[in-house]
């Protein structure tokens, strides 16, 4: 990459330009790197595919955690994806549950009652 200040080519991993000493894009990236990995976000994301309720709860906690300074937004996108995926599959589960119960109720009601 090239230095934004002097235009000299600098190492891809360089934090500051060796020519003029101005911080590169890597400097901002390393400065804003999260202190802690938001592992919970990944757990919630994976859970949302298998156990919607658990995935939703874990993802919401992870999303709240991501806003804390020690996580510095780490895992926010994963947590958000986990919330959406688990909410959608919960919604589908709810709708199919309602449809199934309507089906069974009307099926049972269709039986003639003999006294
Ligand atoms: Zn420079």
Task: Determine the strand fraction and express it as a percent band.
Answer: under 5%
Helix and strand pattern: HHHH
Radius of gyration: 26 Å
Shape: rod-shaped
- Ligands in the structure? zinc ion
Low-confidence stretches: none
* Biggest β-sheet strands, sense, barrel: none
DSSP helix fraction: 55-70%
Task: Please count the beta strands (DSSP E, at least 2 residues each).
Answer: 0
Number of separate domains: 2
Ends apart, CA distance between termini = 87 Å
Would you mind describing this structure in some detail?
- The protein is mostly helical and 115 residues long.
- The chain has two domains: 1-33, no CATH class; 37-109.
- 59% of the residues lie in helices and 0% in strands.
- It has four helices and no strands.
- The protein has helices spanning 25-31, 39-50, 52-66, 76-109.
- It is rod-shaped and about 100 Å long.
- The model has no long low-confidence stretch (mean pLDDT 90).
- The site of zinc ion (ZN) has 8 residues, from loops.
């Amino acid at each position: 990459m090239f230095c934004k200040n002097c235009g000299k080519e600098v190492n891809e991993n360089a934090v500051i330009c060796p020519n003029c000493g101005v911080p590169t894009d890597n400097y901002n990236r390393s400065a804003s790197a999260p202190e802690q990995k938001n592992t919970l976000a990944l757990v919630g994301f994976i859970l949302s595919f298998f156990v919607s309720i658990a995935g939703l709860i874990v993802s919401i906690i992870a999303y709240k955690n991501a806003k804390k300074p020690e996580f510095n937004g780490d895992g926010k996108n994963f947590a958000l994806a986990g919330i959406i995926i688990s909410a959608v599959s919960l919604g589908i589960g709810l709708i199919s549950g309602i449809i199934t119960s309507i089906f069974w109720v009307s099926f049972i009601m269709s039986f003639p009652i003999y006294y």
